[in-house]
Write a structure and sequence with these properties.
Layout (H helix, E strand, L loop, with lengths): L3 E4 L12 E5 L4 H6 L10 H8 L8 H10 L2 E5 L1 E6 L8 E5 L3 H5 L5 E5 L1 H15 L3 E4 L11 H8 L6
Length: 163
């Protein structure tokens, strides 16, 4: 597989009532194909979010959107475009960051969380200087993050529940 220059194909998910923004780094191949966040069946994001709120894991994109909206969660990624090999975070080069102003200007987002190290690194380097909202780095829900089982992820991610 060789490196490709890719522009983010998924629009941000938010509404006027969004209070929390969760940023990934850049969509995986499966997410790009599905045209929605955390589309790989092994990614633990949606089961984790459902567990944190005591709900059944969503299966359809509409159910996923409803889960996020019902808990005032906005979703997007730190990277707008990059050169990447497949879905590999370690291969990401030539980064252009996303502009979060659309979300921040049209919602009540005051807290930002990053799903994984690359997302946080890109946010702090490119986005934080203009936005000024500190982001909390959370462990990645990717299946590549084998060091964190579901219980350990839940412990770390509970911080999003705190007001």
């Amino acid at each position: 597989m060789q490196a490709e220059r890719i522009i983010h194909p998924i629009p941000p998910l938010y509404d006027a009532d969004s209070e929390i923004l969760i940023l990934g780094s850049f969509p995986s191949i499966r997410s790009r194909e599905a045209r929605f966040f955390y589309g790989h069946p092994q990614n633990r994001f949606w089961p984790l979010l459902a567990a944190l709120f005591g709900e059944e894991p969503p299966s359809t994109i509409e159910e996923k959107k409803a889960l996020a909206h019902s808990h005032h969660i906005a979703l997007w990624d730190s990277i707008r475009s990059c050169t990447i090999v497949g879905s590999s975070d370690s291969s990401v080069r030539d980064v252009v960051p996303n502009d979060l102003s659309e979300i921040l200007d049209n919602s009540r987002v005051e807290r930002i969380f990053c799903n994984g190290t690359l997302s946080h690194k890109m946010y702090m380097k490119y986005i934080y200087p203009s936005v000024g909202i500190k982001a909390v780095r959370l462990p990645s829900t990717s299946p590549a993050n084998a060091a964190f089982g579901m219980e350990r992820l839940k412990e770390e991610w509970r911080v999003i529940l705190q007001a």
